[in-house]
Amino acid sequence: ERTCRMAAEMQRSLHDKATVLVFSWPSNGLPTDYVRDQADIEWSVPALAALMGALGERIGAANVQVVAHSLGSRGVTFALQRLAAESVKRPAIGHLVLLAADFDARTFIDLLPDLAPLTAGITLYASDNDTPLKLSHQLSGYPRLGEAGEHLSVAEGMETIDVSSLGRYQITGHEYFYFHPVVAADLVALLSTGAPAEQRAGLQPRLRDGLRYWEFTGTVRPQHAVPDGEDD
């Protein structure tokens, strides 16, 4: 129910420039059930891959923009690999947006050369204020893709947006794309225009190991942002 409310808000924010379709997998949403949730998202991969493939055939792969949050990033990554194994046309989808991705950072970077051709572009949003990802890091023993700070993932083949400078804003810091109006506005701009980070307002370039990533200036006034909601 909560995810559907978020999707409805996103639909309104896009002003009929897209149709939002929600793929809801059976997460228990509890820290104590983290291992079970990992299994649940993996069991959901065949259905997710079938949906993405069917949408691509019906409306054209370039028109299928995929937004994945948290462990959903794991499901989308495995679904893309499944589509690749089925020899679908490249790209298999349009833009892939990863929000607070709960996926092993090193593993994803290793997979990126094979994943990038399956999409029209990949954007990663990451934060150093994300408490659930810090907990996931402790449980798994390794940095998560959606973490920032010393663990920020920057690589060729994707654009990384570090939202840490905007603060936590919401109690867990895990749903900044919904609760922080500046991030929400940038996400809407990305989905509705497809413009790269250098063409979107309020982002400034930074360098890490010679590679460029982006962070928010904190001064842009959000427009058409996803409205704030309750954190329940």
Number of helices in the DSSP assignment:
8
> How would you characterize the largest beta sheet?
6 strands, mixed
- Rg for CA atoms: 16 Å
Task: Give the overall shape.
Answer: globular
- How much beta, percentage-wise? 5-15%
Structural class: alpha/beta
Question: What order do the strands of the largest sheet run in, or round the barrel if closed?
Answer: 1-2-3-4-6-5
Helix content: 25-40%
Terminal-residue CA separation:
11 Å
Low-pLDDT stretches are 219-232
Strands, total number: 6
Mean pLDDT score, rounded?
88
Characterize the structure shown.
By secondary structure, the protein is an alpha/beta fold. It contains 8 helices and 6 strands. A 6-stranded mixed beta sheet has the order 1-2-3-4-6-5, sandwiched between helices. The longest helix has 15 residues. The chain is globular.
Kindly list the characteristics that best describe this protein.
single chain; 8 helices; disordered C terminus; 232 residues; 6 strands; six-stranded mixed beta sheet; alpha/beta
Question: What order do the helices and strands come in, and which of them pair?
Answer:
Blueprint: H1 2-13, H2 34-43, H3 45-59, E1 66-69, H4 72-85, E2 95-99, H5 105-115, E3 121-126, H6 131-140, E4 159-162, H7 176-179, H8 181-193, E5 203-208, E6 211-216
Parallel strand pairs: 1-2, 2-3, 3-4, 4-6
Antiparallel strand pairs: 5-6
Helix pairs in contact: 3-4
